[in-house]
Amino acid sequence: MKKLILLMLILCACISSNAQVLGSAQTLGKGKGNFGMMPALFVYSGNDQLMLFINGGYGISNGVDLGLKLGVFGNSNFIGMDVEFSKSKNFSLAGGFHSFNDLAMDLTGLVGFNLGNGARLSTGLDMDIVFANSTKVPVWVPINLEIWVKNNMTFMLEADIDTKLFDQSYHLITAGFQVYF
């Protein structure tokens, strides 16, 4: 019951929150966690901005994890959460809520590929439904490369490329380290 109450409090807190992918197609195992710090560059029609992302995750059960993201030191703060569901070893779906100037809902599908010993590539589609004065629906193609540095640490490089399918948005480039525990 305590876990359910905690999960509900986190979900309610994140109703006013924003999420980008910042991760791979694999979920954390039950009781496992991660923590990362990644400087990021938002590229948007000359209004580029730098931000520092702090993210963490926790494996709620096998095949389901909760991710929290905080972006600071930019023009606006960024806060978000998502719940990711593993559909197979190499495919996951995630949904969450986020805020980055406006309230939005985030939907993501990712597929992952092992690139040999110690490296993994993930890609897919990430869509936001932004509830501003007029609803916007930007769609990105995330490309994430994760390279294992140690047994419990990876270097992660990610580019979220705006598709301009429905609305024009920003591109995101980020790199940093993730620690798994």
Automatic annotation (TrEMBL):
Q: Does the keyword Signal apply?
A: yes
| Keywords of the record | Signal
Signal peptide range in chain numbering: 1-19
This protein's superkingdom? Bacteria
Protein name per the record: Outer membrane protein beta-barrel domain-containing protein
